[in-house]
């Protein structure tokens, strides 16, 4: 038994040494031929066979994918859906106040629109900034259960006509709208804020 284990050790050492001692030109020839240097010697240097997973948690130890791929994987690990009790609230606690929203729009326009001259490069970005500021300030007023929509139209004056139409399914008791229009010599701006109640 000792002689068998000694010869196996010698074989494994010789194959490892012969792979290391292989000349670069013969290694290149083997690679060109499509064979690795370990396959040429007849034995692989690695003693583990690693099976690569095509899906699942192959990188995490101890977790293996299910046997078949389905859309119902891991149902037992999903969180239960959140269940809220009905509030039966049909009217908002704080209604959409058009006068407060108009004051908010005017303060934003005073900060950003005063002294502005229409520029094809800067004006579209200014419209986006004004819409974001108006939206943020109106949401800070605390109209709960309202969807706030801010529409900013910034148009260059070139002796053209302009008309703007928006259509909604409207609830006159709960929904609201504020509209502000300002003009300068080179352009005009129209800021419209809609407060749509979500019941």
TrEMBL record:
It comes from the Eukaryota. InterPro entries: Tctex-1-like, Tctex-1-like_sf. One of its GO terms (molecular function) is dynein intermediate chain binding. GO terms for cellular component: cytoplasm; cytoplasmic dynein complex. One of its GO terms (biological process) is microtubule-based movement. It holds the Pfam family Tctex-1. PANTHER family: T-COMPLEX-ASSOCIATED-TESTIS-EXPRESSED 1/ DYNEIN LIGHT CHAIN, TCTEX1 DOMAIN-CONTAINING PROTEIN 2. Belongs to the dynein light chain Tctex-type family. This is Tctex1 domain-containing protein 1-like. It comes from Spodoptera litura (Asian cotton leafworm).
